[in-house]
Amino acid sequence: MQNFTLLIHCSDQKGIVAAVTNFIVQVEGNIIYLDQNVVIEQNVFFMRLECDLSNSKHTVASVREEFSSTIATQFNMSWEFYNQGTKPRMAIFVSKYTHCLFDILGRHSSGELNVEIPVIISNHDDLRPIAEQFNIPFYHVPFSKDNKIEGEKKQIELLAQYEINFIVLARYMQIITPKLISIYENKIINIHHSFLPAFPGAKPYHSAFKRGVKIIGATSHYVTEELDEGPIIEQDISRVSHVNSVEDFIMKGKDLERTVLARAINLHAERKILTYCNKTVVFH
Amino acid sequence: MQNFTLLIHCSDQKGIVAAVTNFIVQVEGNIIYLDQNVVIEQNVFFMRLECDLSNSKHTVASVREEFSSTIATQFNMSWEFYNQGTKPRMAIFVSKYTHCLFDILGRHSSGELNVEIPVIISNHDDLRPIAEQFNIPFYHVPFSKDNKIEGEKKQIELLAQYEINFIVLARYMQIITPKLISIYENKIINIHHSFLPAFPGAKPYHSAFKRGVKIIGATSHYVTEELDEGPIIEQDISRVSHVNSVEDFIMKGKDLERTVLARAINLHAERKILTYCNKTVVFH
Amino acid sequence: MQNFTLLIHCSDQKGIVAAVTNFIVQVEGNIIYLDQNVVIEQNVFFMRLECDLSNSKHTVASVREEFSSTIATQFNMSWEFYNQGTKPRMAIFVSKYTHCLFDILGRHSSGELNVEIPVIISNHDDLRPIAEQFNIPFYHVPFSKDNKIEGEKKQIELLAQYEINFIVLARYMQIITPKLISIYENKIINIHHSFLPAFPGAKPYHSAFKRGVKIIGATSHYVTEELDEGPIIEQDISRVSHVNSVEDFIMKGKDLERTVLARAINLHAERKILTYCNKTVVFH
Amino acid sequence: MQNFTLLIHCSDQKGIVAAVTNFIVQVEGNIIYLDQNVVIEQNVFFMRLECDLSNSKHTVASVREEFSSTIATQFNMSWEFYNQGTKPRMAIFVSKYTHCLFDILGRHSSGELNVEIPVIISNHDDLRPIAEQFNIPFYHVPFSKDNKIEGEKKQIELLAQYEINFIVLARYMQIITPKLISIYENKIINIHHSFLPAFPGAKPYHSAFKRGVKIIGATSHYVTEELDEGPIIEQDISRVSHVNSVEDFIMKGKDLERTVLARAINLHAERKILTYCNKTVVFH
Fold it and tell me: B271: alpha, beta or left, given left = phi > 0 and alpha = psi -120 to 50?
C-alpha cells in the first residue's frame, strides 16, 4: 500500500487548496478523498486528504519530506502526515469495569479496530484474567496519593517500551497526570458516562436519575488537564423513562459507553480528527 | 363519549390495584388502559387508567364523586379525574419567535392537537398578524420592570376570562411570575432550546457551539420558580458537526423545539403526565 | 428471592384485572409491576405482572398451581409463569461471524445478560477457539443437504442434554428446520442485518447500498418457518451517507446487529415479550 | 452577494481538483466550501464547491461562462452552477392532507426555507383556504382518468407561467405523468410515508402495523417513473410499540413526514444534492 493521509490546519489564505492539489499532481498522486472546511469567524482552514501513490514513482516518505519543505512551510501549516500502511499502537488503561474492555478486545479480535493493542495497564489487578484470555500483556501499576510519581514514571516507561501512539481510558477511574497528558496531547481518549457538559464528574447516572432526564448519554473526548472539559470526539444518547431505575440507567449507559468509545477509537485510528480551540473537526 | 382518565399517586400499599379495579367493576366500567408503576426506593405508587362507561348506567360525574369519597380517601391518594369528552383549554404565550407558534397553530388546524386554543398573549405586538391569520384572539400585554404587577394582573385576568386550563410558552422570552406559577402549578409548559441540564439560561446554542458538542437538544418542562429547573416532560436531540455554524445550530434547533413542544402539549392534553419530586411520570 | 413474573394473553372480558389483582391480594403478594394493554380491534387483552411474595406464606410454586386452577381456567387464558430466581438457559448457534458471539460472551462475562450459556453449536469448527477462550462447551454440528436429518437430530439432542430454554442465532447462516422451530416456538431469536421488511434474505447491506438508502438497520425476531417473517422483537438504525462504501455499511451494521440482538436476549430472558398474530408485545 | 455554488460530476481523472482550484485562483475567487468524493468502484468523481467573488473583478456570470468553455469541457463534466443570490422558485402540489402544507408555509413565513413559493396546485379545491391564509395563488387542477391530458397541460402551463424551478409533492395523492417528470427530472420531491424500500405504495402505516415493526419511517425522494423508486434524499424514523394503534402510527408519521420533507426542500434549495445511478450524493 502506498496510500497516505494528510491533515492540515492553518489560517485561511487564498490559494491553499490549489497549492495542495497542484502538489499532489506534481508527485503523481491520485486524490481519493478531500474534505476541506473553513471556519469563517476564526479564519481557520482545515483539510483532510487521502492520496494513492500506487502509480507514482514517489514514496510516502519522500512525499512527506517534500511537502514539509515546500507547501507546509509556505502556508505556515500545522499538519500531520500518516502512512496508511502503519497501524497506530494503542494502550488500554482500565480499572475494574469490564464492559468497555471486553468490547474493545472483542472488536479487535473481530478485525473491527484498525489498531495494534500491545499492552493493557491498570491500577488494579482485577482484570488481568481478561487480558490473559485475549493474550495481551497486562501491567498492574497501582496509583495512589503516595506513589503518584512512581506510578506515572512506570506508566510512561511502559508506554515508551511498547511504542504507544495513543491511549484509551476504558472506564479508567483515575485522574491522568499533567505530565502524561503533555506527552500524549490529544492522544488520550476518555469515555465519560454522561452527555457532556451535563453531569461532569462522579456518578452522572445518579445525577441524571435525580434530575429526571428523559435521555441519557455518553461522551468520548480527549483528556486535558480540566476534568471532562477536553475536546469532544463523539456523543450518543439513549431514551429512558420513569420505569427505569438508576440501575437501568447504568445498564443502558454501558451500551452507549462501549459504542461511543469504539467509534472514537476508530476515528482516531483512521486519522479523521483534527483539534483546535478545544474542539474537534471530525471528517467523515 | 363516556370515557374517563384517572391518574393516581400515593404511597405504595398492598391492595391498591385490586381496590381500584374492583371499583371499576362495581361501576360497570371497562378498563381500556391501565399502567401502574412503583418507585421502590421512595415507596411511591403511580397509576393511569382509562375506562369506558358506555355499557354502564353510571356517569363520569357520578363515578368521580363515588371514587373521591371511597377509594381516594381510603388510600389517601393524590388523584386527577378527567372526562375525555372535554378538551383542555390552552393559552399560548409568545414574544417574537414565530416557528413554534406557526407549528402549534398549523397542527391545531390539522387536528393534531387535542386542545382548544382560545387566546394568544404576548409581551410584544409583533405576532398579532399570525394570530389573525388563524383567527385567534391576541392580546398585547407588555411586561417590563415598571409595569410587572400590572402585566401579571392583566395576564391572570385574561386566563380567567378565557377559562384557561394550561399555558404553553412558545419561546416566550420573559420570566413567569411566582404568582402565576402558583396558580398554574405544573400547568405551564416551557420549551428550552438545549438538552437540559446542559446549557440552562440564555444563548444555549452559542454555548453548545463554543463547547464543541456533537449533539444538540431541546427540552420541554413544567415551569417552576427555579429557571430551567422544572420537571422535564420530553427531550430530543439532533446531530451537529464541525461544518455547522451557530446559525445552523439555531436552525436545526428550531426543528427540535417545535417537535418536542408539540409532543409535550399532547402528553399534557391527554393527561399522560404525573409529577412528583420535580420529575414527571410520562405514561405511554 | 420469592418474585415471579406472570404473562397473560386472552380475549378481553370485563373484570379480568380485578380478578387477577384480587388473586394477588389473596396470596398475600405485593404487585411491583403491572402493565396491561387491550387491542380493541381484536378484543385481545395482555398483561404482564411482577409480584413479590417475600411477605407471604405462599411459595411461587403454590401460587402458580393456584393460579392455574382458578383464574387462568375461568378466563380461558394463555399464560406463562416464571420464577424470577431461575435464569433461562440459552444456546448460541453460530457459523463464522465473530462479532455477535464476542459481544454476547463479553456481556455475559460482565454480568449484563441474565441467562446461563451452557453450550455453543456451530455448523463450522472455526469459532471453537472463542468458545474455549470463554470456557463454554462447543459442538461442531455440520449441516448440509446430505446430513440434514442427522444434523437436526444432533442439535435436538444437545439442546435436550443441556436443558436449553431458548436459542440465539448469532449470525448463524443456516435455515432452521421446521421440526426444531416447532420444538422452540417463539424461542429462537434471530438477528437479521436489515431493517425488516426491507431487504429480507441474503446480502441486505449490498441491496441497501444499491438502493441508496440514507439509513440502515437491524432486526431481531423470532424464527418462524417463513424466512425473515417472524414476530419482530427489536429494531434499530444507523445513518449512512454517500461517502460510505458497502464495507462501511457492513461495519456500521455490525454495531447494530450486536446491540439489537443483545436487547432482544435481555427482553426474552426477563420475560418481557408476548407474541400473538405474528407480532410481539414488548413490555417495558 | 457574489457567491456561487458549483456542483460537478464526471468520471474520475487525475488532476481534476487541481484544475478546478487553479481556475478559482485565476478568477480571484475564495473557496469557502469544498467537498469532493470518489466512488472508486464506479470511477465517479463528485464535487461541491462554494466560492466568494467579493474580492474579484469577475462576476458570477462571467465565471460561469469561463468555466463552461474551459475546465467543464476539458474534463467532460456534468455540472451545475448557481448564483447564491437567486432563490429557487418552488411549486407545491397538494391533495387533501394539510399537515405538510401548513408546515411548509409556516417555515417559509418564519424564514426557514430558502425558496420562493409562487404557486400551489391541487387536484382538489379543499385546501384553497390555507393558500389564501398565507396569500399564495392556488389553482384547482382536477386530475382524473378522463381529463389526464388536459390536467397535465394545465399543470405544465402554470409551472411555466410561474417560472417554477422545482416541485414539492406535499402528500399529493396522484401519480405524476411521465411528461412532467421528464421536464422536471430530479426536480420533483415526494414524501413517502414509510421507510423505503419497506412498504412502497398505498397505506404503508397499515402495512407497518400489520407487520408489527418497532420503528416507522418516512422517505423523501425524487420522483421517477417507477413509483417510490426514485433517488432517496432523506429518511428518518420514529419508535413505535404495541401500545400504538394504526392511528398513532399515522399521527407519529405526520411528524416524520413534515420534518423529512422540509429537510429535503432545504437540501435541494441549497444545491447540496447530486444524483447519479438513481442515488443521491448529499453534501453536508
Answer: left
Mapped onto helix, strand or coil, the DSSP state of residue C38 is strand
Q: Are residues D76 and D93 in the same domain?
A: no
Q: What share of chain A is helix, strand, coil (3-state, %, to 5)?
A: 35, 30, 35
Chains in contact with chain C (at least 3 beta-carbon pairs closer than 8 A): A, B, D
Q: Which 3 state secondary structure label does DSSP give D215?
A: strand
Closest CA to D69 of D274, D10, D77, A17: D77
Residues B76 and B184 in one domain: no
- Are C121 and C155 spatial neighbours (Cβ–Cβ below 8 Å)? yes
Residue D13 sits in a domain whose CATH number is 3.30.70.260
Q: Which of C83, C110, C136 is the last residue of a domain?
A: C83
**Beta carbons within 8 Å of D146's beta carbon, 6+ residues apart:** none
CA distances from C167 to C95, C120, C281, C282 (A): 14, 10, 19, 18
Give the gap in angstroms from C-alpha C141 to the nearest C-alpha of chain D: 33
- Closest by Cα among A275, A271, A163, A281 to A223: A275
Structural domain containing residue A57? 3-83
* Cross-chain residue pair A232–B212, CB shorter than 8 Å: yes
Identify the three-state secondary structure at position D238: strand
Residue D199 with chain C: CB contacts under 8 Å:
197
Chains contacting D with at least 3 CB pairs below 8 Å?
Answer: A, B, C
| Catalytic residue chosen out of the listed positions B35, B52, B103, B228 | B228
Same domain, A66 and A199: no
Instruction: Supply the DSSP string of D122-165, one letter for each residue.
Output: ESSSTTHHHHHHTT--EEE----STTHHHHHHHHHHHHHHTT-S
**Are A153 and A94 part of one and the same domain?**
yes
Number of domains in chain D: 2
Å from C212 to nearest chain D CA?
5
pTM (two decimals): 0.96
* Overall size of chain A counted in residues: 284
pLDDT mean for each 10 residues of chain B (284 residues): 92 92 95 87 91 94 96 96 95 98 98 97 98 98 89 97 98 94 98 97 96 98 96 98 95 97 98 95 93
Comparing CB atoms, the residue among D195, D278, D281 nearest residue C242 is D281
Phi, psi of C266 (to 5 degrees): -65, -40
Instruction: Write the residue in B17, B30, B31 that is nearest to C31 by C-beta.
Output: B17
